[in-house]
Amino acid sequence: MSEQMNNILCQRIGIYARLSVRNTEREEMSIENQLLLVGQYLDQHTECQQRKVYVDYGYSGTNFQRPEFQQMIEDCRLGLLDAVIAKDLSRLGREHLQLGWYLEYFFPANNVRVITVTDHYDSARLTEQMLIVGLKNLLNEWYAVDTGYKVRLAKRQQREQGNFIGAKAPYGYRICYRNGKRVLEPDQTFSVLTNIQNMRRAGQSSVQIANKLNEDHIATPEIYRRTGILRIPQDQTTDKWSGAMVRGVWNHKNIACCSNTSGDNDTACLLYTSDAADEL
Asked: Which of 91, 94, 17 is nearest to 62 (CA)?
């Protein structure tokens, strides 16, 4: 059995590597290091030259709809691979039920051998490894859940301390730093935002407001973000306000005022406190 599986391994091998965004600072988990480790293993254990590399960058291990992972699965289904190898089981996935289905049903059903280097897992030599793999899958899933919880908790703590945690400021504001906190304060578009809110209170629809902004040559949020220019002549841009744009900027429901007492003046500072920031 061992000799037969070694012969299969020497034919067509799929090398899989994955890196989520949160792991980019860990050098040992880089895509390059994963491929180097797997390549060294293969050089030591086989003379096979038929190797296809699949890499998913920026995908969580709990998401199995990764483009390259799914391509590898399809190649297995089509009989194009005899073996799949990765650095460890967590590279294949971090959700133990789904990963277990692939390891215990899909790969065996398609005659595909699975090897993970640092876990010393080899589906051709399964004894007590089955229990170990199950435990590893549970630990990998726990790690993903625990990491997500810690990220959400850190964001919540930052908000409670008065920090704006969004990637960019909403229309009408800019990000500034006051008393060691990352907060919001009005910029030159704040007057436009105020006019939008006033027109809305007066009963005008979002389309009517958009038409008024276009008549006044007010730059759209995207054009302003790129140029810093508040008013742009109509003949210099084809980008126009729409009702959807207006609805997008008048919904800053959770911006609260606070007082800035760190300087010589008493300029109002604004904090973004929306729970929606967790989705950023």
From this structure: 94
